[in-house]
Amino acid sequence: VALSAQDEALVARRARVLGPAYRLMYEEPLHFVRGEGVWLYDTEGRAFLDAYNNVASVGHCHPHVVEAIRRQVGTLATNTRYLHGLILDYAEKLLATLPAALGHVMFACTGSEANDLATRIARAYTGGTGIIITDFAYHGLTLAVSEYSPTLGNAVHLGSHVRRVTAPAAYRTEGDVAAAFEAGVRAAIADLHRHGIKPAMLIVDSLFTSDGILTEPTAFLKGAVDAIHEAGGLFVADEVQPGFGRTGDTMWGFQRHGVVPDMVTLGKPMGNGQPISGVVIRPEVVDSFGRNARYFNTFAGNAVSCAAALAVLEVIEREGLMANARDVGAYLLDGLKGVAARHEAVGDVRGAGLFAAVEIVADRASRAPDRELTSRVVNRMRQDGVLISVCGPGYNILKIRPPLVFTRENADTFVDVLDRALAAR
Ligand code: PMP
User: Fold this and answer.
1) Which UniProt keywords are listed (predicted)?
2) pLDDT range class, residue 2, cuts 50, 70, 90
3) DSSP β-bridge partners for residue 238
4) How far apart are CA 5 and CA 416, in angstroms?
5) ipTM of model
6) Residue nearest atom 10 in ligand 1 by C-alpha distance
7) CATH no., domain 64-318
8) Domain 31-58+320-423: which topology?
9) pTM, entire model
10) Which residue among 196, 265, 308, 337 is least enclosed by CB atoms within 10 Å?
């Protein structure tokens, strides 16, 4: 690993000051000093194509968002205990992108906090505590949410009120994925009942991101949603990764499944880097919670974050970024299919808008995950100036999730670099 002396010193300083729980990406860590659009620039001025960042979803340092933040932070930065129009302008514009049944939005600062709040609301509404998740889910890091985020690592224990259901990976499932998932949810409900636990919610990332980016088929959630409703529980769509137009055809991932959740949680791309998240809720679901508990979250929904979030929605609209995600995403997927045709190691490619997965296998017949090659590909692409990461239970799925301003030319670069990384075996 050829780190500069300065970066070696930073790595040592991080360990000394920040302690052992932080991780850097890549065998050769990166040190960026500037970002613009789809590009990140390191200390040497080298440009890296960011094909991984869905926080800077409308592009790094988008001028319209930067200006909205600058203007608001220089005018007033205060909280939800005073009247202010901006939070309402934003809330109305956001709610207009969601089904009419979801009539309220409550703000938080991180995706974890949004899911934590959704959990409390689900418990209050249902009187239950049971939570059903997918096998390899990640929903966040608060104490309550870490108890249903199995990918956090060995130090985290799943709650005794949590049940896991295998996510419906079409590439690895025989038969009907909808029926398999529904059966899994029904079995989880039965097991909760057997242990005297009343179900509160089924929560899924609507693209099953950490379970491996399961974009196909669509419309398989209805049976599972009916099952949780019959059991008196709620259905929560975690849109922290799929949301805000990324899937191209729809603004929200759950819309690909033709279901309307009881709650939707939002985060990452919402403020293009400014910390803002939220829970969108059916009004009847939050009614008793709201009457019995006050909600004040110091930084959440502050005027600066709302200005950023409003600017993000404006950019998505003005620049036609959903259409771009759809068009460039389809173009990228075609390119990835070409890669699959040239390299035996690619077992499957799939995608929805600008969210794509390339599954790396030891051989196509057994479909055995090749974790080691996957990691080498990611590190080689980084050496060639393209950033992605890995997901899935076998750590063998290339996770491709560029900013929504990604162009066809960027997609060509991406495909070339991936081709080379796979060829250099
Ligand atoms: N839900 C999902 C699906 C996520 O991917 C993440 C973050 N990776 C979270 C929740 C938690 O968000 P945050 O890191 O903002 O707390």
Assistant:
1) Aminotransferase, Pyridoxal phosphate, Transferase
2) confident
3) 205, 265
4) 31
5) 0.99
6) 139
7) 3.40.640.10
8) Aspartate Aminotransferase, domain 1 (3.90.1150)
9) 0.97
10) 196
